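TA notes, week 10

Several of you asked for a full example with nothing omitted. So below is the full record: structure tokens for the whole chain, then the designed sequence directly under it. When grading your own attempts, check the secondary structure regions first.
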């Protein structure tokens, strides 16, 4: 049987090529994700730990910054070669527009430049700054198109602009602290002059030769007992690098887990293709199997030989899949960084044994598992089958159909019950997970039931082809319906890929429209002007009252309101209270807001205060500021938290004033107040559009592998069907069917399978996407949007791609000689 298996593989190598390719693609994506995970991990480890490079011990500040006296004490510890204090504080840097460079409203950082280059927490391209010079991080330099020798401007603590020439560019790698924010490197004395900061965020230490890190850390800990009393910690350099590496692990693991989900989807689709291939091949080789039974082969030997054949294909496909995975690992960072600006660091590919072994194992296990049922079916072949012609169509008994229908009904019913349970769950995150789980079960039931309805659906979809294409069209529909089980398995892989694409496009489109609706309902203003947040602490700054006063002097701006928030202790309870000096700008606010009263958040229990009377409960959301525990009058908040300027200004333009004119006024007034950030509803909507489109592109790219595997499955099914129907095709040719009509018949058959698979997948997405949305966003009543343009595009793409997949099988069928084929 070993020789029989080998002979079968060599004889049917061309027929098994598409199956092997499906394994390669399925394993390639999964193995590539694992290789990418190891590579990304190494890149994150390297970049995250860059700030602790060459460090033998470190003192990390606690509740208070570390002082110069503590730096002196550390420097005097026996075994310390050199110690550096690192200053890190907020310092707004101005961009090319003259406004501060911010990310999520936060300004950038100033960091001190160590004298000892080995203790600098960054790579430097250029030289350390001298008088009137500064360093700039590479990310900001690329964004602002800056280079060495150019000039930058920063704002000191008084809001005065200070100019510096760029002497070098610094690279922190991927840093949780600095990524996305501007970073300016300056001498410690200059940072103190600009910001008033004198303390250190950490003290990094390099030891003398021969001193153990643990001994050094113990000695340093004894020298800074006052600092440790305030929460400061002393760690060895290895411990610090391990902490940073653990932060990197969490980041890399998130990416890897998400990508593995799509890898599993691709592998599941590949299993369908493999199953269908073996089912067709073994049906075609029924006479060959029967002859083996006649010469003494047992059922067990037939079963074992089939599984050995599948294992060989899985091993070869897995090996090439691992090689393909190396290429995938190169492409995933480009996809993630391009679509999501994920910041995955560049690093040479890390190839460890684990992804290789997993890839090979998955290839073998998936292929063997897919071949088990066809192999069992092959063992039922009787020896007498070698003496008669075998039917090309499969007849399924009524009893088998009823059993299949009952099983499918039970599975769908269980999935529906799980989905219903998810809809009744209060926690939105848990509810979403349960609804998705229910959807998976329902889809499994649909796959089980598909042989029962796929024939009728194919006939319905094929009506135009039957009427317009004449006999070739009718034959194509009949061929697609002849073996509904085979057609169902062939289209199932396409159902999965297209169904998920349809679901994600509907989910993301609805999320985008829901966010727009929320913007329209919660932003009854044209502009939200916020104070820039402190880069280090994240605390909101304050907007001088003169700024809003100047805006109110312009008649083009109909309404200008100032907002303030504060943490207040009232009747023993800590509440986040807000106030707006022009409440009429927010029409959703209930009436009755006066001194001594509070409007409480209707999403939380009434705090039942005695100091403040509850006037009403309602939506306490203020655009740009978020939701408060309660809203009080401006004067009432001043009594509770003291007088202060606001941190937010809301502006509504007058009727008839264009956005260009109103924005020009705001920018002109704001030129004297650089520490404010202006956002319009149009800006927010545009950013949302870009983010959602990026996610749609990302999911389409990730699911594209599954769709590609499904198309190989269609091509493989048609190729094997062409061989199976050789005599039938020759008969049709003898009856007058031309080569072109025969090719067109096969293309139409592929088109039907592609369209039917896409229709079922899209229908499932249309049903379950709204259910997932309602579970995830039940508190805000999401807007359900059906992206008909996307869904139409998916349907057309499936149709065209299916036809392209059938081109080679159709050409092969058209080349056959009539007489030779009929004599076969």
């Amino acid at each position: 049987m070993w020789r029989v298996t080998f002979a079968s593989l060599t004889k049917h190598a061309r027929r098994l090529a598409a199956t092997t390719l499906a394994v390669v693609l399925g394993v390639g994506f999964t193995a590539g994700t694992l290789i990418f995970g190891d590579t990304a991990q190494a890149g994150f480890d390297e970049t995250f730990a860059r700030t602790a490079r060459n460090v033998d011990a470190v003192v990390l500040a606690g509740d208070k910054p570390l002082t110069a006296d503590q730096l002196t004490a550390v420097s005097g510890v026996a075994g310390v070669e050199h110690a550096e204090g690192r200053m890190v504080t907020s310092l707004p840097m101005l961009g090319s527009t003259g406004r501060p460079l911010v990310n999520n409203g936060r300004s950038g950082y100033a960091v001190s430049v160590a004298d000892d280059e080995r203790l600098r927490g960054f790579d430097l391209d250029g030289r350390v700054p001298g008088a009137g010079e500064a360093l700039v991080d590479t990310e900001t330099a690329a964004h602002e198109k800056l280079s060495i020798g150019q000039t930058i401007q920063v704002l000191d603590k008084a809001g005065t602009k200070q100019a510096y020439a760029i002497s070098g560019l610094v690279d922190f790698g991927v840093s949780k602290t600095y990524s996305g924010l501007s970073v300016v490197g300056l001498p410690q004395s200059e940072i103190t002059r600009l910001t008033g900061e004198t303390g250190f965020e950490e003290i990094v230490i390099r030891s003398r030769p021969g001193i153990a890190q643990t001994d050094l850390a113990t000695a340093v800990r004894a020298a800074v007992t006052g600092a440790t009393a305030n929460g400061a910690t002393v760690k060895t350099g290895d411990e610090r690098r391990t902490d940073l590496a653990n932060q990197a692990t969490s980041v890399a693991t998130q990416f890897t887990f998400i990508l593995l989900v799509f890898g599993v989807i691709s592998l599941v689709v590949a299993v369908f293709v493999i199953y269908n291939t073996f089912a067709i091949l073994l049906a075609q080789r029924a006479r060959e199997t029967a002859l083996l039974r006649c010469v003494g082969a047992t059922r067990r030997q037939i079963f074992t030989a089939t599984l050995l054949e599948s294992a060989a294909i899985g091993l070869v496909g897995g090996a090439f899949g691992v090689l393909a995975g190396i290429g995938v690992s190169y492409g995933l960072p480009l996809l993630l960084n391009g679509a999501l600006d994920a910041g995955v660091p560049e690093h040479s590919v890390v190839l460890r044994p684990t992804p290789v072994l997993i890839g090979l194992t998955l290839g073998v296990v998936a292929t063997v598992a897919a071949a088990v049922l066809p192999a069992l079916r092959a063992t039922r072949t009787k020896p007498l089958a070698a003496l008669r012609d075998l039917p090309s169509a499969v007849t399924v008994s009524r009893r088998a159909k009823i059993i299949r229908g009952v099983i499918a009904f039970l599975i769908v019913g269980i999935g529906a019950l799980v989905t219903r349970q998810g809809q009744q769950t209060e926690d939105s995150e848990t509810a979403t997970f349960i609804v998705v789980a229910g959807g998976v079960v329902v889809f499994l039931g649909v796959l089980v039931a598909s042989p029962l309805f796929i024939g009728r659906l194919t006939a319905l979809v094929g009506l135009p082809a039957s009427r317009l294409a004449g006999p070739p069209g009718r034959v194509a529909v009949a061929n697609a319906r002849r073996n509904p089980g085979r057609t169902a398995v062939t289209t199932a892989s396409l159902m999965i890929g297209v169904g998920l694409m349809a679901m994600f496009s509907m989910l993301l489109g609805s999320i985008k429209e829901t966010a727009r609706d929320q913007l329209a309902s919660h932003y009854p203003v044209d502009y939200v002007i916020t104070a820039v947040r402190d880069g280090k602490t994240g605390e909101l700054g304050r907007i001088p009252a003169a700024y809003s006063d100047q805006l109110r002097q312009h008649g083009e701006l109909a309404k200008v309101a100032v907002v303030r928030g504060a943490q207040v202790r009232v009747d023993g309870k800590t509440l986040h209270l807000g106030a707006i000096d022009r409440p009429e700008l927010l029409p959703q606010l209930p009436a009755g807001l006066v001194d001594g009263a509070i409007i409480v958040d209707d999403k939380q229990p009434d705090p039942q205060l005695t100091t403040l009377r509850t006037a009403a409960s309602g939506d306490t959301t203020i655009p740009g500021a978020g939701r408060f525990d309660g809203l009080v009058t401006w004067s009432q908040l001043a009594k509770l938290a003291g007088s202060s300027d606001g941190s937010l200004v809301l502006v509504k333009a007058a009727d008839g004033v264009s956005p260009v004119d109103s924005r020009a006024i705001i920018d002109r007034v704001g030129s004297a107040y650089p520490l404010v950030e202006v956002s319009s509803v149009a800006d927010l909507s545009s950013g949302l559009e870009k983010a959602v489109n990026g996610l749609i592109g990302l999911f389409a790219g990730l699911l594209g592998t599954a769709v590609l595997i499904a198309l190989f499955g269609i091509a493989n099914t048609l190729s094997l069907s062409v061989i199976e129907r050789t005599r039938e095709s020759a008969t049709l040719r003898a009856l007058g069917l031309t080569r072109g009509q025969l090719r067109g018949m096969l293309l139409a058959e592929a088109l039907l399978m592609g369209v039917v698979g896409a229709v079922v997948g899209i229908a499932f997405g249309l049903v379950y996407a709204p259910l997932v949305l309602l579970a995830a966003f039940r508190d805000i009543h999401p807007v359900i949007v059906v992206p008909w343009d996307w869904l139409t595009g998916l349907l057309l793409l499936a149709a065209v791609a299916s036809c392209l997949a059938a081109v080679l099988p159709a050409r092969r069928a058209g080349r056959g000689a009539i007489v030779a084929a009929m004599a076969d």
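The chain has a mean pLDDT of 80. Use that as a sanity check on your answer.
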